[in-house]
Amino acid sequence: MANPAAGSLEKSDAEWRAILSPEQFKIIREKGTETAGTGQYDKFSEEGIYTCAACNTPLYKSTTKFNSGCGWPAFFDAIPGAVSRHEDRKFGMTRIEITCTACGGHLGHVFKGEGFDTPNLRSPSIADERHCVNSVSLNFGKEEPPK
Fold first, then answer.
1. Going edge to edge, which strands form the sheet with 65-66?
2. How do residues 26-75 score in pLDDT, each as one tens digit?
3. Which site among 3, 23, 57, 122 is 20 to 30 Å from 104 CA-CA?
4. Of 52, 55, 103, 132, which residue is the catalytic one?
5. Active site includes 132?
């Protein structure tokens, strides 16, 4: 799966507002968080591909989704190169923010060492990771989207 080059999908706030709902803009562009347990993909379990709601880049395969009980969709790994990590020091703590590599849209955060027994075939050293993703940041399709 080829992903667009990092930053290749840059748009102005006005352009993003024209294509995203107000809730999507708040979460994806302003790094907000949806209320736990309210997202459409939290308990969703169909097979397919989760894509960025802003730019349609494939981010996660359903085979990497698991039920963490956290109130947001949880994945143990992303499609290679699709998700970028950044240090987030808001709210007096250090966390790892995850964004869509293609458009920079906020997805959520990665949490480590919580004791989940999740496989990570690409990197067993990070098997105990949870990508906690806002449903608003995602779309879902049964097949890989067209390139």
1. 65-66, 74-75, 129-133, 106-112, 95-100, 83-88
2. 999 999 999 999 999 999 999 999 999 999 999 999 999 998 888 999 99
3. 122
4. 132
5. yes
